[in-house]
Amino acid sequence: MNTEPWVQRARNYATSFLWSRKAQKYKMVMLGRNLSDGLLAKMVIYVLLSIVAYLYLQPLLYMISTMLKTVSDLLDPSVKWIPRVVTWENLTKAYKGLQYPEALRNTALIALSCSIVQVLICSMTGYALARLAVPFKGLITALVLLTFLIPPQVIIIPLYVIFSKLGLLNTLFVFLVPAIFGQGLKGALFILIFRQFFRAQPPSLEEAAKLDGASAARLYFRIMLPLAQSACLVVFLFSFIWYWNMYYEPSMFLAKGFTPLSIRLDQLEDVLNPSLLGSKDLVSNPVTEGTKMGAAFLIILPPLVIFMFLQRWFITGIERTGIVE
Amino acid sequence: MSSVPDFKRKAAQYHLKRYGVGLLFMLPWIIGFCVFVAIPIGWSMFMSLHKVAVVPGGFKYTWLGLQNYRDAFLKDNVFPIELITYFQEMILMVPIIVIFALLISLLLNQQFPGRFVYRALFFLPVIFATGQVLSELFTQGAGDIPFLDQYNLEPVVRQYVGGELAKTVMEVLGRVVLILWYSGVQILIFIAGFQTISPSIYEAVRIDGASPWESFWKITLPASVPFISLNVLYTIIDLFTFPLNPVLKHIKDNMFKVDTGYGYASALAWIYFGFIFVLLALVTGLFSRSMRLKGGRP
Hints:
- The complex is a heterodimer.
- Chain A is an all-alpha fold.
- Chain A has two domains: 4-90; 98-266, MetI-like (MetI-like fold), CATH 1.10.3720.
- Helices cover 74% and strands 0% of the residues of chain A.
- Chain A contains 16 helices and no strands.
- Chain A has helices at 5-18, 21-31, 39-67, 71-75, 89-98, 100-131, 137-149, 152-166, 173-180, 187-200, 204-211, 216-227, 229-245, 248-253, 261-272, 286-321.
- The radius of gyration of chain A is 29 Å and the shape is flat.
- The relative contact order of chain B is 0.11.
- Chain B has 15 helices and two strands.
- In chain B, helix 3 packs across helix 8 (163-174).
- By secondary structure, chain B is mainly α.
- Chain B has two domains: 3-48; 67-294, Orthogonal Bundle (MetI-like fold).
- The longest helix of chain B is centred in the first third of the chain and has 45 residues, at 4-48.
- Chains A and B meet through helix 3, helix 6, helix 7, helix 8 and helix 13 of A and helix 1, helix 3, helix 4, helix 5 and helix 9 of B.
- Chain B: Keywords: Cell membrane, Membrane, Transmembrane, Transmembrane helix, Transport.
């Protein structure tokens, strides 16, 4: 091979570099020992996740951007994401239209009281199904599953009649009473979560407490319930969110008077334009679009703030609860 | 020597002692089940066999037998079509949601800084992806993927899918982001599920020279079959109450119509439940069979 000497030198240098320890280190950093360790793989993960997250959160961004637009910006097709003039008028209008403080109080009252009760009752039921002697346990577990599967539409009319006979309609108790009796919103799911959790606990704890002479109630409230903290948090938050957002049931049971936010959002169009009453189609009305998005934002704001503070415990809690066993 | 009544009393005492605490813990649920589930279910079945008219002070029932159920398929020209369309959509939506959740959770399961932020982001929709806010976004047409219009995909879909099904496909694609919002819980279930696979298996396989690609197909995927089945079931149940579900809207409309009324609406709801139940049973059967064939976990 009659190559120039500098090519030879360069080649030598390149091979010695490739096998040097430094290069190995670079390679290690870029590609990693595992597929997921290297910098390159991490970049790919970041990019993929960011793109998907953008697509995923786009409706939320759309909500916020629409909320801040004036009507002329909304009608202008050249304005897509960033409004020409930022206006807070939509928010104030939505605030008034929803009668926010009152509706917020109603919603918070329902969501808080019902989810606390649900944590208590569902954990008790789940504990009984997991650990205590209950006659026909298999049958009862199957019935719990059944209550989870039955769509609410099937039983909503008889329920309406029962609630009206009991005089519960349009009060807080229309949701609180079923929650007390273990039939709250998606209560069956929570019972199954608690059952799963308690089954995974070692029985020696209970045996020790029993030997020390603890009664069943004491055993449960002093030992088992504190043990189930992470499961309780998960159930509480899910229950809170679902009560906060529920629409179908309150649209039947809380139609007037004591109305939560979701119902008021539905009625917002009529409140804003009393003249259009009755002609409510699925066609969106550009004049009220911004206000409606503002109202939607006001509705999701409180759970969003709560979630921001609790998300870390929440997500690790789910991993630890063993919901999926 | 104890007499027979004495023995009986002792047996009762024994049973009370044995079952008493458990029954006490279950008592709220049992009462609740009877009042708020069992009675309504029976009542609604009773109603579905009658023509129910609202008269002052209660209901007036006229026996119809299975007439309501027959009408739902033979007379009603909206319900069967909506049912079929909805099931078509569901068959498309369930795999989309579950596969999306699987992919995202695979990515989120990797170790990288900032993982918590992304996990929180993908869980965010669970907070507001139910109810009125979601349907408000639907009506305003938010939630389609931007490249659907940009690259004009509709003719392509029409060409490959063809016929009536293309319309369904387009409808699903048109709100795919909001459908994906239903995958928050599923992502969590998958992530939690991956924690149950022991890392030493991956290590052993790597030493044997398997690439990450192979270890995904040979280890991660088979081990997550139970979670996939759980997620499919959860998704189906979750989609029952999808806020823009046309079937539910039809049922609600019929409830307040004078000529059909509660009886007919109940019959429709029962038919709907029957279909869902069959679907759930099919899925459960399928998955439990595939798990048994692979000798996986029960």
